[in-house]
Specification:
mainly beta; about 110 residues; globular; four-stranded antiparallel β-sheet
Length: about 110
């Protein structure tokens, strides 16, 4: 059974940093693009960042330069380093690969 488990969320102040993790189990995703998405209250889920199996990255304009996506294929884990967090980054963050989604981790940024 495939599972994606996010962790690392929390309550921080504007300007702080957080590092999210997404641990995959049940199968390897070494050859798949993995992505981060987020959903703020009352808003649609939106793309945040992704990394392909070859290491190519893609970012939403709103986070480019502040967030960095990485992955450790040996650990079947993806990370999202979030720096200089802003209140508008407040959302539930989800990881995604193929058709699988994690349960999400809450990130709250106070001003």
């Amino acid at each position: 059974q495939v599972q994606l488990v996010e962790s690392g969320g929390g309550l921080v102040q504007a300007g702080d940093s957080l590092r999210l993790s997404c641990a995959a189990s049940g199968r390897t995703f070494s050859f798949n693009t993995m992505g981060w998405y987020r959903q703020a209250p009352g808003k649609e889920r939106e793309f945040v960042a992704s990394m392909s199996s070859r290491g190519s990255t893609n970012y939403a304009d709103s986070v480019r330069g502040r967030f960095t996506v990485s992955r450790d294929s040996a650990k079947n884990t993806m990370y999202l380093q979030m720096n200089n967090l802003k209140p508008e980054d407040t959302a539930i963050y989800y990881c995604q690969v193929v058709r699988y989604w994690g349960q999400g981790t809450q990130v709250t940024v106070s001003s």
